[in-house]
């Protein structure tokens, strides 16, 4: 394939890269033009997304740059979720960051660069491309975590994320070097062919190290130690971004490398995925119970949800992958909506609040906000008829169909533990004495974006099942 054809297949990444460079020049010229840069960055994401939709409609399935990167239904589905989450993260950030004195034009530049890296991650068909996309995303994320440079918590979050992220990258790179050494190639398809038969001990170590490095990126237990501290310390719009777009990208990358590169040796990777899934579900649920900070609670919630998503991967089937993609789409809406609610917890003096004491009796002082937050909590708990129930149902169905009934049973039992801390939020808002700390919201963007997310995870979301099921099935089919 010639260069022009390859560039056409990666046009979304080209658009985002070029836009980021242009906005970088704008930030150097006018660093205070944060709102304008955010609007232009959202426009770039919409433009990139339009090309992705065009590829999806055309059923594009081709490799670019001599097989280093692919353009298929699976990657395009993930890119839509990534661009959507990135755009929402840009839209909700300006007023919050301005209040902190941290809104600068570099923020949308970093979001675009991270989105570019994530687009490369989900389309990677080679270990080299995988690492380039992963590091492009990670380097932008390290800066975003410490973006509020005069806030000690943000600086601490950025430092912790950088140190532990560098460790995870080293583990991943070591595993990749082992796979290359024993398979003789960095291509996923070539590694898959090399695993079709007798597997050496060195190859097993390579698989373990690669899965460990990727488990860090999706904050799956026992590689979750960075998540609560980074989520609490980073500015809330950044935390909303971390909890949505990078989760989709890293999960999609994990799916692709497991199915395309390790698929022939399910007995090696399936045990690892099952253990990580169960640990994430249980540690996420138990760890959240004692939390008093709402951002830390949502951090453990993300760990818990990753465990449920990995149940679909453990099935190792087309149905399991499709279930994972459905869950990811619903998870993005639930998570973004939850953090949008947190951003509206602003006291009368203008300071932002994020503890259980602050939302006591919220239903009596801010009934609409309390109702929306309750919708997100019930949906995250997987309580019907809210849409979050459907996400859990499809992955459990895939596990049962793949003869993993014990895994599904343990997952269902553990979800009951997780429901405790979600219901605790609702109990504090509706049954405790009003603290009357939270002032009425004056941010229309947060109000309507939160309302849209709440509608998406309400029973109205079931209307999207036919479209979501068709797209996820098409995406999963591209890998098998």
TrEMBL record:
Pfam families linked: Proton_antipo_M (PF00361)
Chain segments annotated as transmembrane: 6-29, 36-53, 73-93, 105-124, 130-150, 162-183, 203-226, 238-259, 271-290, 297-315, 321-343, 368-390, 396-423
Keyword NADP: no
Enzyme Commission number(s) of this protein: 7.1.1.-
GO-annotated biological processes: ATP synthesis coupled electron transport
Main location: membrane
Keywords: Cell membrane, Membrane, NAD, Oxidoreductase, Quinone, Translocase, Transmembrane, Transmembrane helix, Transport, Ubiquinone
Domain NADH:quinone oxidoreductase/Mrp antiporter transmembrane: 124-418
Superkingdom classification of source: Bacteria
The keyword Transmembrane appears for this protein: yes
Molecular function as annotated in GO: NADH dehydrogenase (quinone) (non-electrogenic) activity; NADH dehydrogenase (ubiquinone) activity; quinone binding
Membrane topology according to the record: Multi-pass membrane protein
Compartment(s): Cell membrane; Endomembrane system; Membrane
Chemical reaction(s) catalysed: a quinone + NADH + 5 H(+)(in) = a quinol + NAD(+) + 4 H(+)(out)
InterPro entries: NADH-Q_OxRdtase_suN/2, ND/Mrp_TM
Cellular component per GO, a single term: endomembrane system
Top enzyme class: translocase
Function: NDH-1 shuttles electrons from NADH, via FMN and iron-sulfur (Fe-S) centers, to quinones in the respiratory chain. The immediate electron acceptor for the enzyme in this species is believed to be ubiquinone. Couples the redox reaction to proton translocation (for every two electrons transferred, four hydrogen ions are translocated across the cytoplasmic membrane), and thus conserves the redox energy in a proton gradient.
UniProt subunit comment: NDH-1 is composed of 14 different subunits. Subunits NuoA, H, J, K, L, M, N constitute the membrane sector of the complex.
Assigned protein family: Belongs to the complex I subunit 2 family.
Name of the molecule in the record: NADH-quinone oxidoreductase subunit N
Biological source species: Sphingorhabdus lacus
